[in-house]
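User: Predict structure, ligand D-glutamic acid.
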Amino acid sequence: MNPRQPIGVFDSGVGGLSVLREIRRELPHEDLFYVADCGHAPYGDKPLAAIESRAVTITEFLLDQGAKTVVVACNTATGAAAKVLRSRYPIPIVAMEPAVKPAVERTRSGVVGVLATRQTLASQTFAELLGRIDLSTRILPQPCPGLVERVESGDLDGEPTRTLLTGFLLPLLARGADTLVLGCTHYPHLTPLIEELAGPDVAVLDSGAAVARQVRRRLTEAGLLAPADRIGRERFWTSGDPMATQGLIARLWRTDIVLEPFDTGARKNVMGYSL
Ligand code: DGL
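Assistant: Predicted complex:
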């Protein structure tokens, strides 16, 4: 393993770009390899075994590409697969944790809303996180079915996305939430809209920057930080339709990109789960 090897990052689709952006800001000298598993999005309503299977397949691909660490830039895949990935691969695996702890420290009303996929909110990882926080805060979990699809379609502030989001936010605001945690990496792409709909008295938190700092810490500990004499580059793959995804990634990444096909199609993974 050497410090010039890339950092591998993946998500069910374009959501993890919100984390990739923070990693790029924190670590300008690193090469970043990103897999958008758009052909299998959304993960949030799939069985745990299917999500774990995708996580294993993509991690092995990233390792084949020379990744020195893998970032699971997806809360749903974290709940379904982070433990398995950590037990199986001898590299640093960095995963997501919804920003519930900072939200508990910040709230004045004592009510925090957590927007995430059904799978994340039902996961053992999320239950363990809630078990570690101050019980005087009320945590309101809000599943958001359909929202990942809105982001994948590129609708970041159109009427269908506004209507869907309003339906998720109103019950949280009515119950006094003054802090909202974005527990899905797709949702930070909607932060301006969420802030507009929730109003100026509500804080909107995500954990992208904290994860980027954690990547830096893990690489530093392992002696694997890239030298400062180089400029980091990115490579992007998608399992979805490259024509459809190229424009969306370029728009969210704010620069032209080359998108390569990631095709594991009929391949079975080590769990034998065929997707
Ligand atoms: N970005 C993923 C997450 O953080 C979305 C999951 C999905 O595809 O449903 O949970």
